[in-house]
């Protein structure tokens, strides 16, 4: 596999590609769907619901969190995850703008 030439693409293109990578994994999509149904979820609860091991679920949560789509907060020793709605709205807007602009150019 060749070296990715991120530097030749716009920051917007790189950001969209990074967010698309997060959504390209079905486990991460399932995690986001589950977290959207609750008000702060524990990793263990998420793991049980989507039927993955706790360490695997934790790794996926960190990828999603690094992309900025999740917030987390500690209550005692437990870490609760929730969707960062501000970032979620930005994600939706970025993809909507991309699809609308591309469609307008080609059709």
Kindly list the characteristics that best describe this protein.
63% helix; 107 residues; 3 strands; single chain; alpha+beta; three-stranded antiparallel sheet
What is the tally of beta strands?
Answer: 3
Biggest sheet details: 3 strands, antiparallel
Low-confidence stretches: none
DSSP strand (E) fraction?
5-15%
Strand order of the largest sheet: 1-3-2
Number of helices: 5
Per-chain topology:
Layout: H1 11-23, H2 26-36, E1 41-42, H3 43-50, H4 54-66, E2 70-75, E3 78-83, H5 85-106
Antiparallel strand pairs: 1-3, 2-3
Helix pairs in contact: 2-3, 3-4
Description:
Helices cover 63% and strands 13% of the residues. The chain has 5 helices and 3 strands; from the N terminus they run ααβααββα. It has helices at residues 11-23, 26-36, 43-50, 54-66, 85-106; strands spanning 41-42, 70-75, 78-83.
């Amino acid at each position: 596999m060749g070296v990715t030439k991120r530097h030749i693409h716009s920051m917007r293109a790189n950001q969209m590609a990074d967010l698309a990578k997060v959504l390209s994994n079905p486990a991460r999509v399932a995690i986001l769907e589950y977290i959207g149904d609750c008000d702060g979820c524990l990793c263990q609860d998420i793991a049980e619901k989507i039927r993955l091991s706790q360490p695997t679920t934790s790794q996926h949560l960190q990828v999603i969190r690094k992309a900025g789509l999740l917030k987390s907060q500690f209550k005692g020793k437990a870490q609760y995850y929730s969707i960062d709605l501000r970032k979620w709205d930005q994600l939706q807007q970025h993809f909507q703008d991309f699809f609308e602009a591309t469609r307008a150019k080609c059709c």
